[in-house]
Specification:
The chain is mainly α and 105 residues long. 84% of the residues lie in helices and 0% in strands.
Length: 105
C-alpha cells in the first residue's frame, strides 16, 4: 500500500478519535450516526431475507430514515457517551457480520 494513503488514513482515524473524545454528541450526530446507518444498511443487504434487488430498494429508501433516527436518538438521550458507544458497537457488529457472511451474488 502507498505510505501516503496509510498516513492519510491514520490521520483521519486520529482526528475521528480526538473529535469523539472532545465532542462526543456532535461527532456522534455527524459521523457515527451516518457510519452506523451505512453499515446497518449494508448488513441488511448482505444477510436480509428476500430478493437482492428488493433488499437494495428497501435499504435505499429507509437508510435516510435510519440515519435521522440515530441523530434524534443522540440528542434525545441526556448522557454524552451512551448512544455514541452503542452506535460504535452497532458499527462493529455490522462490520463483523459483513466480513463473516457469504456474498449474496
Amino acid at each position: 500500500m502507498n505510505p501516503v494513503m496509510i498516513g492519510i488514513g491514520g490521520v483521519a482515524i486520529l482526528a475521528l478519535g480526538f473529535s469523539t473524545w472532545k465532542r462526543p454528541r456532535l461527532t456522534g450526530a455527524l459521523v457515527w450516526a451516518f457510519v452506523a446507518s451505512f453499515f446497518v444498511s449494508a448488513t441488511y443487504n448482505m444477510v436480509g431475507p428476500g430478493n437482492f434487488a428488493d433488499r437494495v430498494f428497501l435499504t435505499g429508501f429507509f437508510s435516510l430514515f435510519i440515519w435521522v433516527g440515530f441523530q434524534f436518538w443522540i440528542y434525545w438521550d441526556p448522557s454524552k457517551w451512551r448512544v455514541v458507544g452503542i452506535l460504535i458497537g452497532i458499527t462493529a457488529l455490522s462490520v463483523a457480520t459483513i466480513l463473516l457472511s457469504d456474498p449474496p451474488i
